[in-house]
């Protein structure tokens, strides 16, 4: 640490070390004292606990900055085919064909970062900066007050960045800014399993597509993507080849691979059986981070939304870019392909959802 | 939580995890990639985004039907 330069009004013996040097007038516990700059530095360091260094504190501030950036999101998530949108602070369920709003649920929390449809289509889970993930049962009765039936299921110590129902309506998997993922029982709100291993915020998770699958993949700010076993809570595999935060992870339709989109402007394809990265989708002309990715039905195409307002479509097998989709006026925050594979929906900070078919 | 742990504890956790991972069974990329390619080629003809949709079934054909949801 080097001394900062400062204008010294006084020169004389320091109040703590008694060495004559230029003095800084500071206030300790409301008393004016004069310390030399070395003593001021030493005092500042005493505030640190043993083992902490300025480096680690700096890292902490970086993660806080990231959180702030997420808080500025206007529109954050989309599910297909009957879409669910998170708007501030209303949860809207759209029918993508008729363009009608089916339900609108006002939420008390200002920023919602994640949402998911239950497999039966009867409920929605959503969570965000309120550190909770809540489940709202849907009903066809238009007059019913859906907000009143909202039930808090997950409780984290930091924001909820992603949520997904497992194969049943009864279990919910969440990922959080506190660096953990957790599996919850919806009825009782009990924590069934927690997954520790990330050393920074977890930004995204995705469940393996198979009916009997018990694994999921999560990606976080520590640049790692981890594959977990849901029953044991163990981290089975981990991949660390990205150079920046992983914003989104998505399983391949076959269940043997997954892709990740990251702030380092690349998307990478990892094979689980070979336990390594097999493809990197990048171009010199793409310098903005990718915030989201999704596969087409057959897995031939990878749609990735970037912060330069475009969606790049990559040919998964060839590793080349197939096409670019322009249209949004602000960054693309989420893309999802519909379950039948006929359309792609993209959500953006320009407050619109676009369906591409 | 990771942010409550000191650097030493984090490194220890990572080390434990890596030790477990060293013994994971792995298959060569060659075999897996051939499988992946076969999988994709098998499904590709049914992928509406690749093969396209016949005009009579396409509700967005022409100028009608396209719009933006806000």
Question: How would you describe this structure to a colleague?
Answer:
The complex is a heterodimer of chains A (357) and B (70). Chain A is built from 2 helices and 30 strands. Chain A is mostly beta strands and 357 residues long. Chain A has 3 domains: 35 residues, no CATH class; 86 residues; 160 residues, Methylamine Dehydrogenase, Chain H (7 Propeller). In chain A, the strands form 8 sheets. In chain A, strands 4-5-6-7 form a 4-stranded antiparallel β-sheet, with no helix packed on it. In chain A, strands 8-9-10-11 form a 4-stranded antiparallel β-sheet, with no helix packed on it. In chain A, a hairpin with a 4-residue loop joins β4 and β5. Chain B is mainly α and 70 residues long. Chain B has a domain of 27 residues. Chain B is 50% helix and 0% strand. Chain B has 3 helices and no strands. Chain B starts with 6 loop residues before the first helix and ends in a 19-residue tail after the last helix. The mean pLDDT of chain B is 76. Classes of the chains: A mainly beta (357), B mainly alpha (70). Chain A: Pfam families: WD40_Gbeta (PF25391). Chain A: It comes from Haplochromis burtoni (Burton's mouthbrooder). Chain A: This is Guanine nucleotide binding protein (G protein), beta 5b. Chain A: Belongs to the WD repeat G protein beta family.
